[in-house]
Amino acid sequence: MSSHETVKAAVRGLGVETASWAYANSGTRFKVFPQPGVPRDPYEKIDDAAQVHRFTGAAPSVALHIPWDKVDDYDALARHASARGVRLGTINANVFQDEDYRLGSVTNPDPAVRRKAVDHLLECIDIMDATGSRDLKLWFADGTNYPGQDSIRARQDRLAEALDETYRRLGDQQRILLEYKLFEPSFYTTDVPDWGTSYAHCLRLGERAQVVIDTGHHAPGTNIEFIVAFLLRERKLGGFDFNSRFYADDDLMVGAADPFQLFRIMHEIVAAGAHAPEHGIAFMLDQCHNIEPKIPAVIRSVMNVQEATAKALLVDADALATAQRDGDVLGANAVLMDAFNTDVRPLLAEMRQEQGLDPDPMAAYQRSGYFDTIRAERVGGVQAGWGA
Ligand code: AFD
Ligand code: MN
After folding, report:
1. 241 lines ligand 1 (CB under 6 A)
2. Which residues have a beta carbon within 5 Å of ligand 2, which is an ion?
């Protein structure tokens, strides 16, 4: 099979999970600008997510966020998704928006608040049992704002206790993905601030606890692909929350700020063979589309992941290994840059046509008239947001 055929086959196998909340209203702490046609409930979010998969062929699952996406009947929601060609994916817990969580959730000094938070995590696993989801994504906003506010070590003890109880509840095929974030909304300490903290807790818990890398959750200049390579080698990389940033946790379209960084990340993934579905890496988007139309922004994001992956698959691994072995610094760098500088859009357009898709998903979506339909139909009701 030609290298191009190999690349197309591998990219076709890559599934990007979109986030239900990406289709809802979102914004910053200064303002949420509502947009016309925004879903009013999880069913309409699924409808929008299904459009991304319809035009890209690469977004088969949709992550849910509880309680934002809470429904009475998850079987009905799963059937609704299936009827539109997608399936329910990762369950995201939310222990960062209840009034009781002002001083933290699972690490709160008040044991009653910690109990409430862990009960929510256990409820999310009950929902996973209903939806058939593999992954429970845990992001804790927990932390402190001032030195002396609380014991840094005691908070780690509380975190470990909560994670232990949650981990013990998991089914045999279920995983915890523990997400870290440098800061925000806590500004002095965050209880899971970096990959090392997540890694240490996951290591202690067991093999079904894995680290999830949100690409917007690092200090500026962090070498994310090093973290990817290290965790892959440790078999502790559960997945990604893809987005991009210029300064902080901007949650912009993945690949929009730094396509070279996304390529370097996918190069580490491809070099380890971790792009293959059987490797179990969750390639998720975690973005907010505050000012841009939401569905096309998610389509663009999926296309950006496909382009970075295709470029990574074009790296001449043999030439790279030879140059590295020979200490040929410029030669090795040139091998990587040759792949990055390859315009893979024609190859991906060909792949889409072979899949029976329009070669240009963005243009196809714009022509579909879907936005005009939802804009006209979704009048009234309460637009979905992020509950802030
Ligand atoms: C926020 C957090 C984190 C989390 C996401 C979904 O910063 O990235 O994964 O919400 O809960 O963006
Ligand atoms: Mn995230």
Report:
1. yes
2. 214, 241, 286
